[in-house]
Design goal:
CATH topology: Nucleotidyltransferase, domain 5
Radius of gyration: 14 Å
Largest sheet: 6 strands, mixed
Number of domains: 1
Distance between the termini: 23 Å
Helix content: 25-40%
CATH architecture: 2-Layer Sandwich
Mean pLDDT: 94
Number of helices: 4
Strand content: 25-35%
CATH class: Alpha Beta
Order of helices and strands: EEEHEHHEHE
Length: 148
Amino acid sequence: MWSPPMTNRFKWNVDGSSIEKPGPCGIGGVLRNHHEILLGIFSLSVGILDSNIVELRAVVKAIELSASNCFLHHKHIIIESDSANVISWMNNPHNRPWIHHKLFSSAQRLASCFDSITYTHSYRESNHMADHLTKQGVHRISDFVAWL
C-alpha cells in the first residue's frame, strides 16, 4: 500500500516497463506531497533498453523534472521505485555499473538543487499509478509531462 511522505517532503513513485525482452520500453512517474495531493506526472517512451536501465531512466527523469521546477528547489525529495537494483545503485555509488556513469553523474549533479534526496524501494503493489503511466509510455510518440 502506498504511504505519503512525511510533512514538507515530496515523493516520486517511478517505474519502467517493456513489452518484450528486448522490446519497446516506457517510463512513468507520479509526484505527491504529504497531503497525498498529486502534483505532477510523466509518461514517455525510452526506446529498447535493459530492464534495469529503464528503471534507472525513470529515477533520473524524476530528478530532472524536479530540478527543472523551481518550486521543488531546496526541498526534500523521496524517489520510490520497485527496482531493488536501481535503489541500491542510487544509495551505494561504489556498486554502480560504470557503463551508465553519465546517467549517475547527471542525477548527482542535479541532486544539488535539493536539501536532500532519499531513494527507497517499494513493492509493485504500492506503485500502481506509475506502473500504468509506464505502460502508456511504451506506446507514446511524444513525451507527456504535466504539473498539476
